[in-house]
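Cross-check.
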Amino acid sequence: MKESDFLIIGSGIAGLSLAIKAAEHGTVTVITKGQPIESNTAWAQGGISSVLPPGLREDGDNCEKHVSDTLDAGAGICHEDVVRAIIEEGAETIDELVNWGVKFDKTADGDYQLGREGGHSQRRILHSKDTTGKAIAEALIAEAEKHPNITLLAEHFAIDLITSAKLGSVTEDRVLGAYVLEEQKGEVHVFRSDRVILATGGCGKVYLYTTNPDSSTGDGLAMAWRAGATIANMEFVQFHPTCFYNPAATGAEARSFLVSEAVRGEGGILINGQGHDFVKDHDDRGSLAPRDIVARAIDHEIKRSGAPCVFLDVTHKPKGFMKERFPFIYETLMSYGHDCEKDPIPVVPAAHYQCGGVVTKMDGHTSIRGLFAIGEVACTGLHGANRLASNSLLEGNVMARRALQAMVSHYHTGKESLTDYEIPEWRAGDVADPDELVVIYHNWDEIRRTMWDYVSIVRSDNRLLRAATRLRNLRKEVRSFYWGHRVNSDILELRNLVAVAALIVDCATRRKESRGIHYTIDYPEKRERFEKDTVIRRF
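Predicted model, tokenized:
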């Protein structure tokens, strides 16, 4: 049995921000199923939104405008108190990241170079070229590795949370730790802690086409659900409008590379095959409208025209601009044989970000005592029905800070009572290795295709019903794999993936309206009685 004062599951901006600060108050164990750099944070291109102090920000910008932009994008579901609290800590977040070694781009005068993205009324996006997330991730990993109180364990897959409820307690429902698979050895260990923090990121891999890394299989969300935590708003899965479409490739490779929204913020325009700026037919803001509007406009244009994609045009920008401002995007496109300075970039939408998740208070505390959730896995109320671009990195850092304050100042650990709970060793199914891996991979593919075909940008009651029926059968099959074979990462991810897919469908079925990134042809308008969170819990 391994013990620590803080057990953090996940190594993105949320998990590592908390680890670095928590290490001043006790021992910290950070586990991640891959390598620490493998996170949605590291894949974030655009940047981090923040209203800087006067003199450093764009003239006319302020927190009220940032709040207003976030509420507008969230389509009536945001919690305004949470929005305001997170945005007002933006400048503190930037100072903290800079102190940890993050270098944001600056102008020749030494001021921060601010970008703009869809839904933002001002330039307030700090960036490090077009690999901002990678710059943040690398700086935080380096900072965490310096601290003697932090143990960073790669290739450790959290299987399930351990709670007192599972042990038959009738006094209180609290977290006691987690069962964790050490992947290289194939051994399952008990990690014991009365403060467990989920920072596992999102679930983009539940869809066939996604901008997310392969690790984004909704693990933290699925674990919290199985433990009995409250979940909300999983129908709101954001689709990024502009992923590179490579007609020379097949399968997922054709829709896997993200072309940052910041490109549109710097003047890129979405056009169809005839050169028409079609997004303006849907919204006066055109290519700088919020993501839900732009993604639906693209989906509509592709279906209307029968074309495989639309185009992001930056050919009107000065020569050398893309290479200087977006070197990663420029070089990656060139590696595919596409010169974006000469030809518009073919793009399509792909699954990007979950706006719902494990319900938390403003300090990250979930409905289970001692269990916290921060970052994309959490539903704080910031994003509502549609995330405003570049608010996610800000949220991850702010909520890490708030969660630590709660754990240190207000949350009594009750370590003495933890010794009252005898945690049993891990109970597995049969010890046989998977005999038909091809069946597991087939199930993985079927889940993702089902979600893409029936539960993506445009939905209907019939599509959701078909998805629910397929997923019900798949869950039974996956359950038999889980209990019938030796546990490994493939089976664990499949188990989590099908659970998250079912949660998305369940929430989507309950929302009989169209709002934000949930659009259904059966209920194309907003309905006042659905201006609330979709809350579900396993009993």
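The mean pLDDT is 92. The domain at 437-532 is CATH 1.20.58.100 (Methane Monooxygenase Hydroxylase; Chain G, domain 1). Passed to J.P. for a second look.
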